[in-house]
Amino acid sequence: MADGHHHHPNYFMVFIALCVCTALSVGADLLSLDNKLVLAAIVMAIASAKALFVMMYFMHLKFEGKWKFILLAPTVILAIGLPLALLPDVGVHYYTVDVPQDPATGSAAETDEHVADGHGDSHGSSQPKSHE
Amino acid sequence: MSHAQPQAPAVRMGLAIPNSKLCMWLFLGTEIMFFTAFIGSYIVLRMGSPGWPGDPAVTHINVLLGGTNTFVLIVSSYFVVVAHEAVTEKNYERARLFLTATFALACLFLVIKGFEYGGKISHDILPGRIPETSQQAMEKTLGQFDVATSNALGDLMPDEEHDGLRIAGLPTAIADAESPEEKAELESLQALMAEILALKTEVRAETGLTLDDFEERVDAMAAKESYAGFMGHVHVSHPIKYGNLFASTYFLMTGFHAIHVLVGMLLFAIPLCKPAAQLAEYTDYIENSGLYWHFVDLVWIFLFPLLYIVQF
Q1: B14 and A CB contact within 8 Å
Q2: Which terminus of chain A faces fewer neighbouring Cβ atoms within 10 Å, N or C?
Q3: Quick one: which of A48, A1, A128, A16 has its CA closest to B21?
Q4: Is B243 exposed, middle or buried (0-12, 13-18, 19+ CB in 10 A)?
Q5: Candidate ranges A14-28, A74-88, B135-149, B261-275; pick with highest mean pLDDT
Q6: How far is B181 from chain A (nearest CA, A)?
Q7: How confident is the model at residue A28 (pLDDT cuts 50, 70, 90)?
Q8: Best residue in A5, A13, A19, A22 to probe B by mutation, most B CBs within 10 Å?
Q9: Average pLDDT of the residues of chain A
Q10: What whole-number distance in Å separates Cα of residue B51 and Cα of residue A95?
Q11: Which chain A residue's Cα is nearest to B285?
Q12: This prediction's pTM
């Protein structure tokens, strides 16, 4: 193998690190933090660390040549590009979200034509709608 | 590189890795885009849907089962690298042992996943089946009543072909009942169906009947002894805001991941069908299958916190 000439990393230590990270994720959840964004940041940071361990050591990327950057760069760019492209409309929008499920607007929606006229059919309309 | 000296050892063109490994990495590149499309869309959809269901009592998400599955995949990933290490050291029996253990852990992962899916299916946490408003919740409960009364009609009047004929023939069946018990049962069913019809009319006329009022009415019906035999499977549904979007994304992501687990099992099954001595021919194959398996683990590493832990 191409990587046969170098020393294997200590896989067992990597495995232990991954187990500790998993336990930390579950532990963070069991803490019942009030600020859910802090919890999200903690568990996603742990997940990223785990992903890094797996990619670097189990998948040997640490020991591969520079081809890894050329091969993975386009996929990483596209992977980041997709959520960024969706973000302005679906995630963050300047207009008011008006959905039948939303209690703020839904009380009106439930009693008027919103549900009955098919805007919010029996399967539940999940797309935010613009007031415009 | 392309101007190699004639006396020099044969120089291999391209990258200093086997073609099979390069192909696997190219494939994994497409796989990264495949899953990041799902995961990225999920994050964005979730951010744009205030009130996304996060309560485990509602979503039936079990963090301990998810954590166990994470552990199972991590152990299996470790076993794959040990198997690969063993095969490069020509210790084929050890390689075979660890590949078998990896295969068994993949099975365990799917069993746990199946158990989780079973919980969601039994609670009807399925795309397109979750009421998201009070009106939809009441409609869904009325649907359960329809199924319950249809079943009861079928049991009590098996000779009639369909529900329409059974309902039309109910007064005659009551008059012709062979025993007082049968007559009482048919009368109870008739009375229950009349109550359901009245309730249905009220719900559909949108008279301002709230879900609480509706639940009270259903509870009162369930409390009647004469209806007990017909209402076993009926319970009042409650709305789950964005429940369908949650269920769609959950099943899409975990479903595609489970398909990848199945493919991984198939990849490991092939060398496992061979005698241990033949594993020498599978050194590259085991490394490449291992890369694939680590990727499957990698996807789960992100799915676990996103689906099981993060709630905002």
Answers
A1: no
A2: C
A3: A1
A4: buried
A5: B261-275
A6: 39
A7: confident
A8: A22
A9: 73
A10: 17
A11: A1
A12: 0.83
